[in-house]
Hints:
Layout: E1 4-8, H1 13-24, E2 28-32, H2 41-50, E3 55-57, H3 64-73, E4 78-81, H4 88-93, H5 95-115, E5 119-126, H6 149-166, E6 172-179, E7 181-183, H7 202-210, E8 217-220, E9 232-233, E10 235-237, H8 238-253, E11 261-266, E12 272-273, H9 274-285, E13 291-294, H10 309-315, H11 323-339
Parallel strand pairs: 1-2, 1-4, 2-3, 4-5, 5-6, 6-11, 7-10, 8-13
Antiparallel strand pairs: 9-12
Helix pairs in contact: 1-2, 1-8, 3-5, 5-6, 7-9, 9-11
Bound molecules: nicotinamide-adenine-dinucleotide and uridine-5'-diphosphate (UDP).
Amino acid sequence: MSEKILVTGGLGYIGSHVVVELCAAGYEPVIVDNLSNARASVLERLERLTQRALTHYDVDIRNRAALETVLEREPGAGLIHLAAFKAVGESVEEPLKYYDNNVAGSVALFDVFERAGGGGIVFSSSAMVYGDVKVFPLHEGMPVQPNNPYGASKAMMEQVLADLAQAPGAKTRGLSLRYFNPAGAHDSALIGEDPKDRPNNLFPIIVQVAVGQRDHLTIFGEDYDTPDGTGVRDYIHVVDLAQAHVMALRALLDGAFEQPFTALNLGTGTPYSVREVVTAFERELGQTLPQKMGERRSGDVATLLADPSAAERAIGWSAQRDLPDMVRDAWRWAGAARQWGLWNDDDQS
Ligand code: NAD
Ligand code: UDP
């Protein structure tokens, strides 16, 4: 019998790709997702893609009693915890919403998991934990100093997980994965990013321009201290990211780590500017995209770039996909999603 792995947020953008990779690796994912930012139809599409019936509990991670029932029914030693709110701007406006869901929710989940026997927890963290640093690339030994409530919620949960794993007699070990900029979609075009609200990220915004839902792209600043003056990020294909979770979980469950808690960057280590991303889309589409230069976006940093070498040493993972792959798959997914009436549709069914 294959091993059950609890996946919170398993119907979301990244979680759905993790579910596919868990199935491919022979695990049995058990999805916990309250559909606060996902459509129920993701489950059907995941079942089509994986060719198997999947288990989903419509449960909020803040509901301890419901979580206890799930863990009684679905005992397992692995937990991949992705459920969270993730909009930085909203976290500044409504910090308590973020601390409640991301921190209180995670504390409840970890507590129930530890009491049910513990095991390995892989936690979705973010490059945001490093805050506004000016030195690149970023490595895991650098200080954690987030500069917004969302980043702080991730940093707090890393600390909570580290403390839990180091506590005397603890049955849980932890691995935190600090994602850089996830992009792209599964190449089947059955799952991908499906923003519920108006997107803020570069990839979905470019797609909206390409399909005529927006007149133009505004490039936020051309006076940064970067090679072409536009912001530089470390974009990582969501399938590479998902595969890293499976490798991380396996290493954790095999006892491959000396320390009870480890944090790893997940990026490619390759920098791309806004202009380079736009050019890659224009090449894929065979057309130029309407664009305007704008002011810098408040809170943006010039460069975010990972040193991903620790992940390679620790779990044998490195990204296999590049920017043209991300662009091609994001575009293919947008086409399929629009055909199904998903993309930017208000109906969250
Ligand atoms: P997403 O919103 O698509 O997925 C999150 C899922 O969690 C959603 O399906 C939502 O319904 C569910 N969820 C939220 N709160 C819940 C709760 N209380 N109980 C049960 N389910 C709940 O987001 P994503 O992009 O897939 O992100 C997944 C994780 O990765 C998050 O923890 C996010 O903070 C982290 N992350 C994302 C990015 C990014 O750019 N997408 C970057 C760094 C880190
Ligand atoms: N960006 C832009 N125009 C947009 C959206 C984003 O120029 O409409 C830039 C942004 O300033 C940053 C890069 O694209 O330099 C990536 O932004 P995104 O929001 O996707 O990621 P994050 O800033 O959270 O790393």
